[in-house]
Amino acid sequence: MNPSSHFKRRVLSPRHQSQRLLAAATVLLTLATGASGAPVSSWPSFLGSRETFPTDVSAAVERVWIEPTLSRTVNGPSAHVPFDVYVAFMDTPEVTAAAARFRKLGSYEIQALDDDRYRANDGDGAQGVAQVLRREPRRSVILSQGQHTGPILGTIRGSALTVLDLEPRADAVDSRLTAYVHIDNRVAAAAARLLVPSFGFLADRKLGEGLRVTTEVAEWAVDRSGGFCEWLAREPVPPMRRDRILAALPLVRGGPRSKRHSTDPKSVTSPAPLEQYEEDS
Q1: Does any domain span residue 277?
Q2: What is the mean pLDDT of residues 6-23?
Q3: What is the CATH number of the domain that holds 119?
Q4: 201 lies in a domain?
Q5: Residue, of 167 and 189, whose pLDDT is higher
Q6: Residue 147: its pLDDT value, please?
Q7: Residue 263 has pLDDT above 60, yes or no
Q8: Considering the domain boundaries, does residue 258 fall inside one?
């Protein structure tokens, strides 16, 4: 090996160092996508009462909400699928990640710890745990805590509070993600704030990646000729998680759309009619 070529790969230009630093900061947000300053209140009103959460969770939320290193909002691509189908893939991110790997859309690995908690690894140095704190008909709120290890700053730890809003339309579902991230390392946090105005597009691209992958997987699933159900039948997915997906696919199963029990406080049901999808089933 040519020593000089090895050295060139190791020493990055200032621009590349800046890009990697910002990517390290924003990648924490995707484990579940200019700095806006700290929110006005000490607790986000969209989470309801602070007392409904364990002490460690409420402390993590407050840390992110009161002192965010940066925050950004991105719009995902429109998903041309029924609302229930899109929500089903959001509810089973480990299935979405497996499908994305199969389709070579991403390298994420996600393990469901229970119905609301997941362990994630993006295959590029980031890993952590995400927990769904609240589900509403068109909104999910997720707390992520993890770390990113890279060649520039080593291991950077942080937390993120992510709000995902869905808007059903006649033939598609639109998504918008607002994320607040707190970086524990003060040097990395200060650098990230400085870099956001110049390299904010990198943060947006990383945040939007999860929405893009979910859209592509969901659209593959409703394509009868795409082979999704054949893939799912072979994939080692727990039966309850597989049924969650299949129940939302009337085009594939030929059955009625799924409906969660209305007594479930975290249930998500479709607020829009899907006659345009059901006429062909």
Answers
A1: no
A2: 47
A3: 3.30.530.20
A4: yes
A5: 167
A6: 82
A7: no
A8: no
